[in-house]
Amino acid sequence: MSLFLVADGAFSQIEARRKQHTYKFDPVLWAKEVAGVHLWSRQAEIAMSVAVNKNTAVKAGHGVGKSFLAALLICWWVDTRYANCFVASTAPSTAQIGAIVWREIHLLRAKIEQRFKEGIVDHKLPGYVTSDHIWKTEGVIVGCGRKPPDQKTDDAFQGLHASEGVLAIGDEAVGLREEMIDALGNITTTKNDRRLIICNPTNPASYVGQLFKTRPSNWQYFTIAVIHNPNFTDEKETTPQAVLEALSDESFLDSKREEYGEGSPRWTS
Question: Which pLDDT score is estimated for 10?
């Protein structure tokens, strides 16, 4: 075998390892280069917060891409930390888990697989996802989405640990009880673990509502109004059309202004 071919192969392996290490701490770059996804500025800020901060809380208006971002972060976490990682996601109902975050996971996995077939990326996401929202790889479970019974909230995900880190996500978190959000904290106890909760701020009396009011210092906080998305800002000029079409636009705002009345509590939330 030619020494040039050997050297080229060794260089390729070194470059692949370098990229893998970079992706592990840069979900925005991973989204662009592996998933072929453009994250708009607020999504990118939240993604980078999850990469470096223990706890991240997000309250946002409708149609700004928050649940899609949760799904993308799950795929990033598994891809860059496989096989010694775990993802646990929950929501107030089983239907919400399947119809929102895990639906997006299926779509992202399919998109990355297509990019692999086209030679754009050098690998597919590991394993497979079952119809009941369990991510398996060679018989090992690396992720799941589920809503535990209310009476079992305290030990919902008890005992879950992974050397490369656990990512715990609470979607539609305004409907999650304090015990459930705390349970997500109980499985993210090491420096490699992360917890993300996201919601529409529809109930100030909820636990996540109180969290944003009292703002304990162990959380990073993000607020995304509908008018923060690129359809309403100069960022529109640099945002792909497909992304703009997936975000709330002026027609949504006009309909809610008419329906709720500008300045009303529902309008504000």
Answer: 46
- More confident of the two residues 192 and 155: 192
What is 202-235 written as a DSSP string?
Answer: --TTSHHHHHHHH--TTSEEEEE-GGGSGGGSGG
At residue 41, does pLDDT exceed 70?
yes
Q: Write out the E strands in the chain.
A: 55-60, 86-90, 128-129, 134-137, 140-145, 166-170, 194-199, 220-224
Burial class of residue 55 (count of CB atoms within 10 Å of its CB; 0-12, 13-18, 19+) = buried
CA-closest candidate to residue 165, choices 70, 49, 83: 83
Query: How many CA atoms are closer than 13 Å to the CA of 155, on its beta-carbon side?
Result: 3
Q: Specify burial of residue 36 (Cβ count, 10 A radius: 0-12, 13-18, 19+).
A: middle
Residue 16 token pair: 């692949």
Percentage of the residues of the chain whose pLDDT score is greater than 70: 89
Instruction: Give me Rg for the CA atoms of the chain.
Output: 20
Model-level pTM? Answer: 0.90
Strand order in the sheet with 194-199: 128-129, 134-137, 140-145, 86-90, 166-170, 194-199, 55-60, 220-224
Q: How many CB atoms lie within 10 A of CB 228?
A: 17
Per-residue pLDDT tens over the stretch 117-168: 999 999 999 999 999 999 998 878 999 998 876 656 556 676 677 888 999 9
